[in-house]
Design goal:
It is built from four helices and four strands; from the N terminus they run H-E-E-H-H-E-H-E. The chain is of the alpha+beta class. It has two domains: about 35 residues, no CATH class; about 50 residues, no CATH class. The strands form two sheets. It has a two-stranded antiparallel ribbon with strand order 1-2. The protein has a two-stranded parallel sheet with strand order 3-4. A hairpin with a 4-residue loop joins strand 1 and strand 2. The longest helix is centred in the N-terminal third of the chain and has 5 residues. It is elongated. The termini are close together. The structure holds iron/sulfur cluster (2 copies). The site of one iron/sulfur cluster (SF4) has 7 residues, from helix 3.
Length: about 90
């Protein structure tokens, strides 16, 4: 899920609705912001910044075709839809 900052009106309903506190409010721009899986890094062939810096490999980045359901039970797995068209215009 990505937030299109061009049409976010800053109502904050998503922030209230998210049970994980994953969405923050960017006061200066009056928009909601959240993790975008570091899509700009991924598009450059890099790992998400948090995965790159994790010292224990507790964070993994895998595509849906290679993601292991078994490993998914104990580790956080980022899935990324390979079609870049899905994300175009949202970062
Ligand atoms: S603040 Fe959240 S719910 Fe409101 S318009 Fe922006 S993304 Fe949508
Ligand atoms: S560093 Fe990790 S948590 Fe932060 S935006 Fe990138 S993928 Fe999301």
């Amino acid at each position: 899920m990505l937030i299109d900052s061009n049409i976010c009106n800053g109502c904050r309903k998503c922030i209230e609705a998210c049970p994980f506190g994953a969405i923050q409010f960017y006061e200066e721009k009056n928009i909601a912001v959240k993790c975008d899986l570091c899509i700009s890094r991924i598009n450059e062939g890099l790992l998400p910044a948090c995965v790159h810096h994790c010292p224990t490999n507790a964070l993994l980045f895998e595509t849906p075709s290679t993601a292991s359901l078994e490993r998914g039970k104990s580790k956080m797995i980022f899935s990324y839809r390979l079609s870049k068209n899905v994300f175009s215009g949202y970062y």
